[in-house]
Amino acid sequence: MHRISLKFSSMITGVALAAILAGAWLADVYREHDSRAVLLPDRVMTLFPAPKPLTAFALTDHKNRVFDLASLKGKWSFLFFGFSHCPDVCPTTLAVLARARANIARSTAGAKDVQFVFISVDPNRDTAGKLRQYVDYFDTTFLGVTGDNAQIANLAGQLGAEYQVAIAPGSADYPVYHTAAVFLSDPRARHHAVFTPPHDAEAISKRFKVVRELDAGNAT
Amino acid sequence: MRWRNPVFICLLSALTLVPAATEEAGVSVRGAWVRETPPGMTTMAGYMELRNNASRPRVLVAASSSGFETVMVHRTIVKDGMAGMVHTSQIELAPNASLIFAPGGYHLMLLNPKRTLRAGDRVVINLEFRGGLVLPVAFEVRK
Predict the structure, then answer these.
(1) CB-CB: which of B2, B39, B107 is closest to A87?
(2) Residue B31 is part of a domain; what is its CATH number?
(3) From the list A133, A163, A200, which residue is nearest B1 (CB)?
(4) Cα nearest neighbour of B84 on chain A
């Protein structure tokens, strides 16, 4: 009995030691070679090795301007699907993205070629005017975009975003379900990466810095 | 990683700075706050740390406030890759246990505030427990 428990406890110690060593190694790689961190399994971001080019879609922004494939070109775009009547996930995510944008704006590369786009999957309630008030509150540079259901489904489908609007006849309050991930499209309008919740501003801006550097390296 | 989330850090600093807001019958609430909404929006969420200091379980059955048309205990869940909310009709608090209402998890859903609430305002929400205990808690509105 005693021998079994001794064997068991030494096994546990071994496992714990291996875990500690692996953790220390990962942390070291992350600290010293930030760029290698993205090649490791990452809870914050999934980077696609072969970014998929997005195809034509047609939406409208909060100032009633066309927002289409051309609007994504020449810029890094953070895309988040949600709805303005959302009490928890959407304001939390948009507040995080506003802080991430502030971090990016402060960095050397800046935020000139970066845009943040909130795509409402609830065009029934989210008119251009509502969206304008909504996104402006978080950051005046944010875009609020929506359109008809087919066009929202078009872009969502290309990015792998899921949503469901459970409109109840005669009720102004109905539930909306949506992907809480944030999608990143690159300046060539390709689906480049996806950030998985729970979102953190510092983690997002750090990963984005690496993504941008890697992309600049690939281009030259 | 989770603790580096600024929301949690805010919550933590609030917990250390603000003394127990309310304590009655072994239930205490700390760090109670409501997120300010963009102008014109009428759906809000309240967060807090709820603690049961007693040696027997407590069950939160409802919440209400004269400051809102509707108050509901909700939880954000992720199902089939989609985030959504479910109404939670009751939550049992184990003896000497805490339950954290935080963004992305449990929250009080607050619909149609009676007046516009801005950062710095306070609004009272009553937490109702099985057995009749009603705990009024002052929530601070924050950005």
Answers:
(1) B107
(2) 2.60.40.1890
(3) A200
(4) A177
Burial of B88-108, coded b for 16+ CB within 10 Å and e otherwise, reads eeebebeeeeebbbbbbebbb
Residue A164 touches chain B, beta carbons under 8 Å: yes
Check CB contact under 8 Å for B85 and A88.
yes
Q: Which domain holds residue B138?
A: 2-142
Q: Could you tell me the two tokens for A16?
A: 């714990």
Domain assignment of residue A22, given as a range: 1-32
Chain A residue with CA closest to B111: the answer is: A87
d(CA A162, CA A180): 9
Q: What is the pTM of this model?
A: 0.81
From the CB of residue A122, how many other CB atoms can be counted at a distance below 10 Å?
20
Q: Which stretches of chain B drop beneath a pLDDT of 70? A: 1-24
- Do residues A121 and A53 share a domain? yes
Question: Which of B84, B110, B111 is closest, CB to CB, to A177?
Answer: B84
User: What tens-digit pLDDT sequence spans chain A (220 residues)?
Assistant: 444 444 555 555 555 545 544 444 444 444 444 444 445 568 899 999 899 999 999 999 999 999 999 999 999 999 999 999 999 999 999 999 999 999 999 999 999 999 999 999 999 999 999 999 999 999 999 999 999 999 999 999 999 999 999 988 777 789 899 999 999 999 999 999 999 999 999 999 999 999 999 998 876 5
